[in-house]
What does this fold into?
Amino acid sequence: MSRVGKKPILIPENVEVKIEGQKVTVKGPKGELQKEFPAKIGIELNENKIFVSPRIEAKKIKALWGTSRVLLANMIKGVKESFEKKLEIEGLGYKATLEGNDLILSVGFSHLIKIKASPSIKFSVEKNIITVSGIDKELVGQIAAKVRKIRPPEPYKGKGIRYAGEVIRRKAGKKVVTAGG
It folds into this structure.
């Protein structure tokens, strides 16, 4: 039995949930999200609570049960509040700017890198911190990973783009290795 899947999802006051077969639509103050769930997962709405249950007993379906419940809970949380990921830029001459809704990165390449913002994603830049925010948790994480992948932090000097709070294991350079031996 899934411990996560058994828990009902409470629907806040200003959030509206509509279930049509396996398609769930969630509307809230921040926006609207839709998602199609597998046919083997049952989704029911009773008195401001959503119950997710498996329709058949199988190992893969039990795994989908908890995942489906968490995805639904994230949809509800996203339209009520919103999700955000913060990235830090570290390195001499590395900077980020906004051009309209798009993010422009100058991170040591001979050219600027432009990342287009999808309609539900918003970028903001303060000094060396980039904030990616939106109502869809999956999309926010995907865009943040895409930004980080442009210039991941390197282990010798720590230059690059990293998540806020991410710890980079530093390596000793040549001089430290030869001096110690």
Notes: The mean pLDDT is 91.
